[in-house]
Amino acid sequence: MTTAQFYCQYCMASLLGKKYVLKDDNPYCVSCYDRIFSNYCEECKEPIESGSKDLCYKGRHWHEGCFNCTKCNHSLVEKPFAAKDERLLCSECYSNECSSKCFHCKKTIMPGSRKMEFKGNYWHETCFVCEHCRQPIGTKPLISKESGNYCVPCFEKEFAHYCSFCKKVITSGGITFRDQPWHKECFLCSGCRKELCEEEFMSRDDYPFCLDCYNHLYAKKCAACTKPITGLRGAKFICFQDRQWHSECFNCGKCSISLVGEGFLTHNKEIFCRKCGSGVDTDI
Q1: What is the rounded end-to-end Cα distance, in angstroms, of the chain?
Q2: CA 68 vs CA 26, 42, 46: distances in Å
Q3: DSSP 3-state of 10
Q4: Separation CA 85–CA 67 (nearest Å)
Q5: pTM of the entire structure?
Q6: Is residue 23 pLDDT above 80, yes or no?
Q7: Cβ of 258: how many Cβ atoms within 10 Å?
Q8: What's the confidence (pLDDT) of residue 5?
Q9: β-pair partners for 63
Q10: Sign of the CA dihedral running 178, 182, 184, 190
């Protein structure tokens, strides 16, 4: 390009002796360049002219003097910052507003520092310690109680019960039978070995049995219906000499009226009300 042809690419004004800006190898006068190519500042909404420093972050632009923390208004030029909901914040403001607070010391967990999370709460790594030995738990297994978090060795030493069956530690849940602790999966019928933790059961000589095994091995049979008499849930039964009846089965052998609380007569293995038994050669 000769001196005679040195014009602004947009307005065609001569650039001889004037400031100009090259864009894609094409010259523009400063006013045209600013009007066509300048970015607009996110803060003041004015164009960032060619003579000003243009600071860019994620496709957005600021004048150098407008690139400030949106909370404390301190300059962020050549300083660490973070973005929150499209706002730029200095490290201190971001920490105060956005960072988690340690559940133990209540101080801010600074961005970039390691934090521990458990049950929706956060700790500094050095604050997340066993309540008993005060050693950091880190990512090791832990057991939580109302009084705090414990490493497994300290929990076993301070609180754990040992299963009466397998002799291993019961870390959670479990049941108690005859004042002794059991894992749920270890509390089994002494007859058929099925789990009893959610079943009705009976005991005999300090051993638990499911109803089927207990009835088969130990339960008395009703003299009327021959079914087992368990006494579960407060069920009542009648005993006379060496025989037993469910209360609902203790009826006159002739008219079937209930004899519970009434006088009765017997003949061989039959029982009768006084009226029906009066014509029978009864025992009493």
Answers
A1: 142
A2: 34, 11, 16
A3: coil
A4: 16
A5: 0.37
A6: yes
A7: 13
A8: 65
A9: 54
A10: negative
Per-residue tokens: 116: 């521990």
- Domains of the chain plus CATH, in order, are 222-278 (2.10.110.10)
Predicted pLDDT at 67: 94
Handedness of CA 13, 19, 23, 27 (dihedral sign): positive
Contact 124, 140 (CB under 8 A): no
Q: What is the pLDDT of residue 129?
A: 92
SS3 (DSSP) at 168? coil
Which residue(s) pair with 188 in the sheet? 195
Query: With 70 as the cut, is the pLDDT of residue 3 above it?
Result: no
- CA angle in degrees (0–180, nearest 5) for 219-220-222: 130
Backbone angles phi, psi at 102, to 5 degrees: -65, 130
CA torsion angle 62 64 65 68 (round to 10)? 60
CB 193 within 8 A of CB 162: no
Q: What is the pLDDT of residues 216-274, one digit of tens each?
A: 888 788 888 888 887 666 667 788 887 888 888 888 888 888 888 888 888 878 888 88
- Please report the pLDDT score of residue 128 as a whole number: 92
Helix, strand, coil abundance in the chain, percent, nearest 5: 15, 30, 50
**Would you mind telling me the total number of residues written for the chain in this entry?**
284
φ and ψ at 230, to 5 degrees? -100, -30
Burial of 125 (0-12, 13-18, 19+ CB in 10 A): middle
Which residue would you say has higher pLDDT here, 275 or 95? 275
Amino acid type, 159: F
